[in-house]
Specification:
Strand order of the largest sheet: 13-19-15-16-17
Number of domains: 4
Shape: elongated
Number of strands: 28
Strand content: 15-25%
Length: about 650
């Protein structure tokens, strides 16, 4: 059989045409995001045996392949998730850092103004103008705390809406991937649908920005997508829907659920941002582990301010001679205590009582009732877990954190194993802060009692009094005396609330220099000498400045964070903590961006379109086309010559 020169030329013509079409497609999509360069693969056609020799019969295009490396794409997918999450969290933190800087500056200025007004009252306690200025500055502090809380609470609501919007976007992406899976499987029976594969990869990259995903390819060309390798998002041509529902136990702490295609409403709860990654994970981390704890940290300071000023205020006498009333809200108001507890069991309520503001950490805690009847307490910020046998054991541990928990079960024994509760001792502190005094004359600048040392005292001791009730303090014309003997004992002679004379003698302990009598705590500083004596009597008038001096001492008093911080220190620590977190996250975002760019460039080196290369290919395939055309022309001319022979 003669070699068909005409057919050989036509095959070369068709192959060159396919190469030109593929090259043109590459050039046209040079700016198409996610496009992978394509190449027409050629192979020789079946040879022919003639005259004792094998002759070639031309060429054919076997496939049009994508210049695609799966491992390079997976690397881009992972780094894309890291980059998107790191940059999103950095942007969120930048907003909070600016807010904290502004609030901290305003509070610092207002605190300075308040202490300045307190010093003016101490200098002239009878001046009503100084007292009104002190109240005005106290109101400024209240406003700063309230506005800060409102700002962050609004930010939390915005993030909740953002989470819901992203959940809908993720659902649309998973539906698109499932649909492309079906199209790719159908088209794959007749070849490789490169453009469909590119579309699916683009959706996978978009999905990878939102959450961390892993993929698994089957023999039909379909891809299954898993959320962080655990929960399915796409299974073949079936897509799972991501849905936002009310949180538990805190309904405002919205959570994510995965709804399968044929679930009849049943869904799988996705708990914790660690299972998410990407921009969605950054949102959850920011809302749950930054915004909430930051509100609690600022609330801790607000509660400490209210408690400290109230204790001093109620120890004194106002300008009208009346016992001092709370300057700020009662930190253990029943409504405030109830708001600090949230549970998922409607039959169980609780109250959280602040017992020591100096021990408060600003932390928030998850409490779970166990199958053994005990409790498991988890610090939400640190993740540290502690187990307790019963409620009494639990409260022993909570006492070290500055608060106590009371559980109310109605009906009795309503707690069931697995019940979850949320304890937020200071979350509402900033918004609950409220000034209770209306006029300056209500400021208790005067002390209720005066402590006078005997003129013959030789020791260095000084006495400081605090009382849980003014009725327990020395009454008019009934002074108390505190005497120290040479044997290390002390004696307190006093008149009780019923008017009866009493005497208490006990051993003085220098390691625990507090004497408690009738609800009054007498703190001894310094060292008493033998026969030292002190008289405690009711203050002579409402215009003295003894209590105002106690207010002024709060400026430099370290009673927060277990006696390590003043109010200003605590505010600065919160602001510095957010600033440091923001800077560190900025470094992480920059590193994640560099890692992504490196992996993306590596992928482009294989799959990206190079216009110089494609232009060279265009010329090469054009010449091939022209040469193949010449072969066809030559074959035609040869045939015509043969036909003309007679």
């Amino acid at each position: 059989m003669a070699v068909d020169m005409y057919q050989t030329g036509v095959s070369g013509l068709l192959a060159a045409q396919a190469q030109l079409a593929t090259t043109g497609h590459n050039i046209a999509n040079v700016n198409t995001e996610g496009y992978n360069r394509q190449r027409a693969e050629q192979a020789t056609t079946m040879h022919m045996f003639s005259g004792g020799n094998f002759y070639g019969t031309g060429t054919r295009v076997t496939d049009v392949t994508r210049m695609y490396q799966e491992y390079a794409f997976r690397d881009v997918l992972v780094n894309n998730t890291e980059k998107a999450g790191a940059e999103a969290l950095y942007n969120h933190l930048t907003y909070l850092d600016k807010t904290m800087t502004s609030v901290n500056a305003g509070l610092a200025s207002s605190l300075d103004d308040l202490y300045g007004a307190i010093n003016a009252v101490a200098d002239n306690p009878g001046n009503l103008g100084n007292r009104e200025l002190m109240l005005a500055n106290a109101q400024d502090i209240v406003d700063h705390f309230n506005e800060f809380y409102s700002s962050l609470e609004q930010e939390k609501m915005i993030k909740n809406r953002d989470i819901e919007s992203r959940a809908d976007h993720i659902s649309s992406l998973t539906a698109g991937i499932a649909e492309l899976n079906q199209q790719i499987m159908n088209a794959g029976q007749n070849g490789t649908p490169n453009d469909l594969l590119d579309q699916r990869d683009r959706l996978l990259q978009d999905l990878g920005k939102q959450v961390q995903i892993t993929t698994l390819k089957d023999s039909n060309g379909m891809i299954s997508v898993m959320l962080n390798g655990r929960e399915p998002l796409v299974s073949g041509n079936q897509a799972y829907r991501m849905e936002v529902r009310a949180g538990s136990p805190d309904h405002q702490q919205t959570e994510l659920y995965l709804v399968s295609p044929n679930s009849n409403g049943q869904a799988t709860r996705i708990k914790g941002s660690q299972a998410l990654g990407g921009e969605m994970g950054a949102l959850f981390h920011y809302r749950d582990q930054v915004l909430g704890p930051n509100l609690s940290d600022m609330g801790k300071t607000a509660i400490a301010i209210a408690d400290a000023f109230n204790k001093i205020q109620t120890q004194g006498v106002d300008l009208n001679g009346d016992p001092g009333k709370n300057m700020f809200n009662n930190i253990n108001d029943p409504e405030a205590m109830a708001k600090r507890f949230v549970g998922n069991n409607p039959n169980v309520t609780g109250e959280v009582e602040i017992t020591d503001t100096g021990k408060l950490t600003g932390g928030e805690y998850s409490l779970k009732y166990t199958s053994t009847g005990g409790y498991e307490l988890t610090d939400i910020t640190t993740g540290k877990k502690e187990s307790y046998a019963d409620i009494t054991d639990l409260n022993t541990g909570l006492e070290q954190l500055g608060f106590q928990l009371t559980l109310n079960e109605n009906p009795a024994n309503s707690l069931a194993p697995g019940d979850e509760m949320l304890i937020q001792p200071t979350r509402q502190g900033a918004i609950d802060l409220e000034l209770q005094l209306n006029t300056g004359d209500q400021i208790a600048a005067s002390g209720s009692v005066v402590v006078s040392p005997n003129g013959d005292n030789t020791g260095t001791a000084k006495l400081e009094l605090t009382a849980d009730n003014q009725a327990h303090l020395p009454q008019k014309d009934s002074p108390w005396t505190v005497s120290f003997d040479g044997s290390g004992n002390y004696t307190v002679d006093y008149v009780d609330s019923l008017g009866a004379s009493q005497s208490v003698t006990a051993v003085f302990d220098p390691n625990n220099p507090e004497i408690t009598v009738e609800g009054v705590t007498i703190k001894v500083s310094g060292t008493p000498a033998e026969f030292d004596q002190f008289e405690i009597r009711q203050a002579g008038g409402s215009g003295n400045n003894e209590n105002a001096l106690a207010f002024a001492e709060l400026q430099n008093k370290k009673w927060l964070n277990n006696g390590k911080s003043t109010v200003t220190d605590s505010l600065n620590q919160t602001a510095v903590g957010i600033g440091s977190l923001t800077r560190n996250q900025g470094v992480k975002a920059e590193a994640a961006g560099a890692a992504y760019q490196q992996s993306y460039d590596r992928m482009l080196s294989t799959s990206g379109v190079n216009l110089d290369e494609e232009a060279a290919n265009l010329l090469r395939f054009q010449q091939s086309y022209m040469a193949a055309a010449r072969v066809v022309s030559t074959a035609s001319e040869t045939m015509n010559t043969l036909l003309q022979i007679r």
